[in-house]
């Protein structure tokens, strides 16, 4: 009986030890399962990746804007639309587009300056014609108020020739001295021209020269 009790006690101790070991083993986390769950989580984009992607998008927008700008220049500038036989059917390079655009802008500046000079000349011509018109109307009115008949009477054509000769001479100096950029500048130039080119002695010399010229044409 003593031996039987000793064996029973030892068996009970081994059984409890196995039970404790089983319980402890079951409480240990399963690392293999955790590793599997970790790899199955969705990928999260890092800050560096987001920044790289934003930079790529911005660079693409910049390239697209530049390309659109060159396409617009080719559509606007007439010389870019003309066929360049040295290039053939190839697409114009950016350097050629820029050069043709610069040349066209310079051409427009020259045309603008030329037109401004023509407008200035026409304004001076109009002003001179108005002056001539007013003076000629005064001459006609004076002739109508005091009609004189006789063989020595000067014809209207001759009077007009005298008037035209005087006005042509004055207009040459007027056209060279008067600027019509603005009304203020016009006013200043007119007074300056009168003081310099409309002095009594100057007008007298002009009239004498015109009369001598017409007299030589008559006789």
From TrEMBL:
<keyword id="KW-0539">Nucleus</keyword>
<keyword id="KW-0175">Coiled coil</keyword>
<keyword id="KW-0678">Repressor</keyword>
<dbReference type="InterPro" id="IPR036638">
    <property type="entry name" value="HLH_DNA-bd_sf"/>
</dbReference>
<feature type="domain" description="BHLH">
    <location>
        <begin position="50"/>
        <end position="108"/>
    </location>
</feature>
<dbReference type="GO" id="GO:0046983">
    <property type="term" value="F:protein dimerization activity"/>
</dbReference>
<dbReference type="InterPro" id="IPR052207">
    <property type="entry name" value="Max-like/E-box_TFs"/>
</dbReference>
<dbReference type="GO" id="GO:0045944">
    <property type="term" value="P:positive regulation of transcription by RNA polymerase II"/>
</dbReference>
<dbReference type="GO" id="GO:0000978">
    <property type="term" value="F:RNA polymerase II cis-regulatory region sequence-specific DNA binding"/>
</dbReference>
<dbReference type="GO" id="GO:0061629">
    <property type="term" value="F:RNA polymerase II-specific DNA-binding transcription factor binding"/>
</dbReference>
<dbReference type="InterPro" id="IPR011598">
    <property type="entry name" value="bHLH_dom"/>
</dbReference>
<feature type="compositionally biased region" description="Polar residues">
    <location>
        <begin position="15"/>
        <end position="30"/>
    </location>
</feature>
<dbReference type="GO" id="GO:0005654">
    <property type="term" value="C:nucleoplasm"/>
</dbReference>
<feature type="compositionally biased region" description="Basic and acidic residues">
    <location>
        <begin position="37"/>
        <end position="48"/>
    </location>
</feature>
<keyword id="KW-0963">Cytoplasm</keyword>
<feature type="coiled-coil region">
    <location>
        <begin position="105"/>
        <end position="132"/>
    </location>
</feature>
<dbReference type="GO" id="GO:0005737">
    <property type="term" value="C:cytoplasm"/>
</dbReference>
<protein>
    <recommendedName>
        <fullName>Max-like protein X</fullName>
    </recommendedName>
</protein>
<comment type="subunit">
    <text>Efficient DNA binding requires dimerization with another bHLH protein. Binds DNA as a heterodimer with MAD1, MAD4, MNT, WBSCR14 and MLXIP. Can also bind DNA as a homodimer.</text>
</comment>
<dbReference type="Pfam" id="PF00010">
    <property type="entry name" value="HLH"/>
</dbReference>
<comment type="function">
    <text>Transcription regulator. Forms a sequence-specific DNA-binding protein complex with MAD1, MAD4, MNT, WBSCR14 and MLXIP which recognizes the core sequence 5'-CACGTG-3'. The TCFL4-MAD1, TCFL4-MAD4, TCFL4-WBSCR14 complexes are transcriptional repressors. Plays a role in transcriptional activation of glycolytic target genes. Involved in glucose-responsive gene regulation.</text>
</comment>
<keyword id="KW-0805">Transcription regulation</keyword>
<keyword id="KW-0238">DNA-binding</keyword>
<keyword id="KW-0804">Transcription</keyword>
<keyword id="KW-0597">Phosphoprotein</keyword>
<feature type="region of interest" description="Disordered">
    <location>
        <begin position="1"/>
        <end position="65"/>
    </location>
</feature>
<feature type="compositionally biased region" description="Basic and acidic residues">
    <location>
        <begin position="56"/>
        <end position="65"/>
    </location>
</feature>
<dbReference type="GO" id="GO:0000981">
    <property type="term" value="F:DNA-binding transcription factor activity, RNA polymerase II-specific"/>
</dbReference>
<keyword id="KW-0010">Activator</keyword>
